[in-house]
Inverse folding.
């Protein structure tokens, strides 16, 4: 087995840096998606861990009506502009973690293809008083084969339901971790992201073997 | 507990697309999002006019990119690092292109360029692609689609050291 879990002095050379006079080599960027319904704490999550205060950008997303009201209908696709916020954590000068907070919307599935390309995984933020707001995100990440973790944001320390009930309502596979966290606290967000990274590491190891 | 968490329950199998679309309307609810607009039959993609309610942000982009909306390089992602060539500022550039070149003396992600210049992300990607084609920018494309275990381990150790 050639996997060394502590490659301390190794420089990751996956960025194709053009040769030329010495210029600052860019860090290798990796990203985690923070998804969920409106107002569940995505921006709070990103801001709690980011070393910069969250920046916002606007992006086009394709939306697919999932036909809840009219199940017989073919799905309709529309394009809409959404605001996405993001932050970053510099691991060292050769590696930088980006966090992208992106909305989902009940009854509509966003197509996050551009966003998800190359992502390590996703944290799906859930408010237990309206669990179904995160269904589009869960559906999407399942289909995309992206490692994801459900993070139940404990507003005011209150968890409306126990985690088993949340798992039932979400109908996610047993190997999808469901964790409880508080979006306002860095340590709590860090721990939730570490669970996402564990999932990502599993996937990377499977891809290698 | 209201429901048994039974993954084999045929009513609620653990498979994509079959989530029970329930909405909690119990007393604990403190927020009801507005229902999203119904999917309108038109206009289809590519026809004139942005979807209703999106006018403000959709007009300017197409001016800046001379009407080009497709041909986006999928390798130019949100986190992709961009750096400008030293001589690029002396080239004839549009104000937006010049601003990008100016900003990227040090490597910067596409998302940061977009946010700092308040340019729509799609527009930023197109302008970055054009600047690269003209030889004014380097776009640092990653070779792997998914990071390798060593990289992920480094992120894990980096995050663990945050307190
Ligand atoms: N008490 C408490 N408040 C929280 C918590 N997380 C978020 N909030 C608050 O809830 C509100 C919404 O949080 P945001 O982080 O803006 O949520 P969001 O998902 O980014 O919202 P949108 O971008 O509008 O969809 C803010 O006023 C936060 O301060 C939490 O864990 N506890
Ligand atoms: Mg937000």
């Amino acid at each position: 087995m050639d996997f060394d879990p502590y490659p301390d002095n190794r420089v990751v050379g996956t960025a194709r840096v053009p040769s030329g006079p010495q210029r600052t080599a860019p860090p290798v960027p990796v990203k985690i998606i923070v998804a969920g319904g409106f107002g569940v704490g995505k921006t709070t999550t990103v801001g709690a861990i980011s070393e910069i205060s969250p920046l916002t950008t606007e992006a086009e997303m394709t939306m697919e009506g999932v036909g809840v009201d009219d199940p017989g209908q073919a799905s309709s696709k529309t394009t809409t502009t959404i605001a996405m916020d993001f932050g970053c954590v510099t691991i060292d000068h050769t590696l930088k973690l980006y966090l992208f907070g992106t909305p989902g919307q009940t009854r509509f599935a966003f197509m996050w293809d551009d966003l998800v390309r190359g992502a390590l995984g996703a944290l799906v933020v859930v408010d237990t008083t309206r669990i179904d707001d995160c269904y589009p995100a869960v559906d999407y990440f399942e289909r995309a084969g992206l490692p994801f973790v459900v993070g139940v944001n404990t507003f005011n320390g209150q968890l409306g339901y126990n985690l088993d009930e949340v798992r039932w309502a979400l109908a996610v596979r047993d190997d999808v971790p469901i964790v409880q966290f508080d979006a306002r606290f860095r340590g709590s967000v860090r721990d939730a992201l570490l669970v996402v990274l564990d999932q990502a590491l599993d996937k990377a190891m499977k891809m290698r073997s | 507990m209201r429901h048994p968490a039974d993954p084999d329950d045929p009513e609620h199998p653990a498979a994509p697309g079959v989530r029970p679309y329930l909405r909690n309307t119990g007393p604990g609810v403190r927020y009801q999002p507005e229902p999203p607009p119904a999917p309108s039959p038109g206009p289809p993609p590519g026809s004139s006019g942005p979807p209703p309610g999106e006018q403000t942000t959709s007009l300017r982009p197409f001016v800046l990119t001379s009407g080009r909306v497709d041909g986006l390089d999928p390798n130019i992602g949100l986190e992709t690092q961009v750096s400008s060539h030293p001589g690029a500022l002396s080239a004839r550039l549009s104000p937006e292109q010049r601003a990008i070149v100016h900003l990227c003396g040090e490597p910067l992600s596409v998302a940061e360029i977009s946010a700092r210049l308040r340019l729509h992300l799609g527009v930023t990607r197109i302008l970055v692609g054009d600047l690269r084609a003209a030889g004014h920018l380097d776009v640092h494309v990653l070779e792997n689609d998914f990071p390798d275990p060593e990289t992920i381990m480094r992120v894990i150790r980096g995050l663990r050291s945050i307190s």
About this structure: The CA atoms of residues 83 and 138 of chain B lie 5 Å apart. The radius of gyration of chain B is 23 Å. Chain B has a mean pLDDT of 71.
